[in-house]
Design goal:
Elements: E1 6-11, E2 18-23, E3 26-32, H1 34-37, H2 47-57, E4 66-69, H3 73-87, H4 92-104, H5 109-117, E5 123-125, H6 128-137, E6 145-150, E7 157-165, E8 168-176, H7 181-191, H8 200-206, H9 215-222, E9 223-225, E10 231-233, H10 249-254, H11 268-296, E11 300-304, H12 311-320, E12 325-328, H13 334-349, H14 375-385, E13 390-391, H15 394-406, E14 411-414, E15 428-432, H16 439-448, E16 457-461, H17 465-468, E17 480-483, H18 500-504, E18 520-526, H19 532-545, E19 549-554, H20 566-575, E20 580-583, E21 586-589
Parallel strand pairs: 1-4, 4-5, 6-11, 11-12, 14-20, 16-18
Antiparallel strand pairs: 1-2, 2-3, 6-7, 7-8, 9-10, 13-21, 14-15, 15-19, 16-19, 17-18, 20-21
């Protein structure tokens, strides 16, 4: 190739807009717009994310070969129009709600790109599930793999089975709207009082507190689930075709009343509903995977789409050994569509070769694809505002953080390039001591300002992972749930009560802060080769305590995107009960900081 070929991928106008830049088939940068705009799940044109990607590559817009949108707006319009026609007058309600954005933005994407970037670029379009499939296959370590994409809806497809090889991506089977496993799960998310497109992981976290008492009712009434994982929904129970509600009055009657009001008390019904839809979802995912293995014969599976963020289902699939290996796109939702679109065009349209692994575990660069800040930039920020700080070298930094954690302190940790995707992976993280039984409730209520039942994830040294978790593979992207080893469990009886806080505070293992009520954990394995600074922190903690695992949660409070800049990190630090803030090689102590007045901060964000 005589010159570098740059492809910019864009996802936008629904939720979690993002941009990703690929050079000669290799991922250079990727980021969600929300990290810059500070509007959670920002759906707008990702101008800030695009500017970041161009700056990271040190190129101008006119050096781009093409800009590619992650889906085909004309096919989406076709689906909407046909759906309106199929349901009659009732379909006008969602049409009126969604048409302005579709007609006003998506169909004029080409004009918008050229106006925003100030140059006459080639604009191309992928298809939604092709973008998802490409986002999982091309960054993976596999030269050939079965591909499974499951989400709410693309243009028409809601579930796609495909095959990836040197010849490209071949779509094998699809399930089409309105039959959607993602929308089924979202319907229960809505019914249990959480926000659709952001609260699904809350439902997943709530599930272990319940019993799957409604699973048979779901199978009998809502979804016709076949042995091969294919399915059809009974649309009489759903409202998304002809109203602005996910569920219909018949759904409410089936499950004993109206949806739970947001922010109201969570009861036994919601716990059991969460457990029930989780079980049915796992059955469908495993059934689809078994069928995909049969029709492709591939040994490896690559997963994408919003349902691929259901790490409990992923863990069950891993345990079942349907495939020898599973690789899941860390930004599996719509944000990852930007990356997949850019890779699909690079590989399929322009014929770029996949970059060599060169000893790396995959081609995703640990998903550390967002902005980093130099020491000079951090120092300038701290000195401009006269914030007391201490500069240390990298070795001392790891020792200080480990010592603070071992003493029960909560640490905000911002080192290196930020993560692409919804998970913090030790670059924009809040860290705590997994040994403390109180850590979970303290971090939920005083740091994150969120529901007390929400579990926290462990970061564990990859080489010590089997000492803590029954997991026979690495999990660098926190996308697999695995059982805690029986050797470190403590006697625990969950009981039938509805007081979640009492249940949360009962120790369940020697590392109770990361052990869920069903003795499970959403594991991140940390490798020195991928994230050396974070590996050093946990290694130093192990030297002090004998434990090679710590609590890792995203560096944000409820309703706010994960922090991006030093300013974001400092504001979040001062708004919460964190004790220590690390920004690159600078350490800040809460007790040393000047008074911080930001009393209206919660009003800036929509609490979800």
């Amino acid at each position: 190739m005589s010159r570098d070929l740059y492809i910019l991928g864009v996802s936008a106008f629904y939720h979690d807009s993002a941009a990703a830049l690929v050079r000669n088939g290799e991922v250079i940068a990727a980021a969600q717009e929300e990290r810059f705009s500070r509007k959670k799940h920002d759906p707008r044109f990702p101008g800030n994310a695009i500017n970041y990607c161009l700056e990271e590559a040190q190129i101008e817009p006119n050096q781009l070969e093409a800009v590619v949108f992650y889906e085909n707006p004309a096919l989406t319009m076709d689906r909407v129009i046909q759906s309106v026609g199929a349901v009659g007058a009732g379909g006008a309600i969602p049409w009126v709600e969604g048409a302005p954005g579709m007609l006003g933005v998506k169909l004029f994407f080409e004009r918008l790109v050229r106006r925003e970037l100030g140059t006459n670029l080639r604009v191309l379009y992928s298809e939604h599930h092709l973008s998802h499939a490409a986002s999982s296959f091309y960054p993976s370590p596999h030269e050939e793999a079965a591909l499974l994409a499951i989400d709410g809806v693309g243009e028409w497809a809601t579930t796609t089975l495909a095959d990836g090889s040197a010849d490209g991506i071949r779509i094998l089977k699809e399930i089409h709207f309105p039959h959607s496993l993602g929308l089924l799960y979202s319907a229960f998310t809505h019914y249990c009082g959480f926000k659709v497109n952001s609260g699904e992981y809350k439902l997943m976290g709530l599930a272990p507190y319940g019993e799957p008492r409604y699973a048979d009712k779901i199978r009998d009434e809502l979804i016709d689930l076949k042995p091969d994982g294919s399915y059809r929904l009974n649309m009489e129970y759903f409202g998304y075709l002809d109203s602005l509600s996910m569920t219909s009055p018949r759904f409410h009657e089936l499950f004993g009343g109206p949806p739970r009001e947001a922010e109201s008390r969570i009861g036994r019904r919601e716990m059991d509903l969460a457990a029930s839809i989780q079980v049915v979802t796992e059955e469908a995912v495993i059934g689809l995977a078994r069928h995909l293995r049969e029709i492709t014969g591939r040994k490896a599976l690559c997963m994408s789409g919003g349902v691929a963020l259901n790490c409990v289902a992923n863990g069950k699939l891993q345990h079942e050994k349907v495939f020898d290996e599973i690789w899941i796109q860390p930004a599996a939702g719509d944000a990852g569509g930007a990356l997949g679109a850019a890779l699909a065009v690079s590989q399929i349209y322009y014929g770029c070769e996949r970059p060599a692994l060169r000893g790396r575990p995959d081609r995703q660069a640990g998903s550390y694809l967002g902005p980093a800040f130099s020491e000079a930039e951090v120092r300038a920020f701290l000195e401009l505002h006269d914030y007391p700080h201490q500069r240390v070298d990298e070795a001392t930094r790891a020792k200080v953080v480990a010592e603070d954690l071992s003493n029960g302190k909560i640490v905000g940790y911002m080192v290196g390039r930020s993560e692409f995707g919804p998970r913090s992976l030790g670059s924009r993280s809040i860290l705590g001591d997994a040994r403390s039984a109180e850590t979970q409730s303290i971090m939920n209520l005083k740091i994150k300002y969120r529901e007390s039942f929400r579990p926290f994830a462990p970061s564990v040294l990859a080489e010590r992972s089997r000492d803590y978790f029954d997991l026979d593979c690495t999990s660098p992207y926190m996308l697999l749930v695995a059982p805690v080893q029986e050797s470190i469990r403590l006697p625990f009886v969950r009981g039938e009560g509805e007081d979640l806080l009492k249940i949360v505070n009962r120790p369940r293992s020697s590392v109770p802060a990361i052990t869920h009520v069903d003795f499970s954990a959403r594991v991140q394995t940390v490798s020195h080769d991928v994230k050396a600074d974070y590996h050093s922190v946990i290694s130093e903690f192990e030297k002090r305590t004998g434990e090679a695992v710590i609590v890792n949660t995203s560096f944000n409070v409820r309703g706010e995107p994960i922090v991006c800049s030093p300013e974001d990190a400092y504001r979040c630090f001062m708004r919460t009960d964190m004790d220590t803030l690390v920004i690159e090689n600078f350490i800040l102590r809460k007790a040393d900081q000047p008074a911080f007045s930001d009393t209206n901060w919660r009003e800036e964000y929509e609490l979800d």
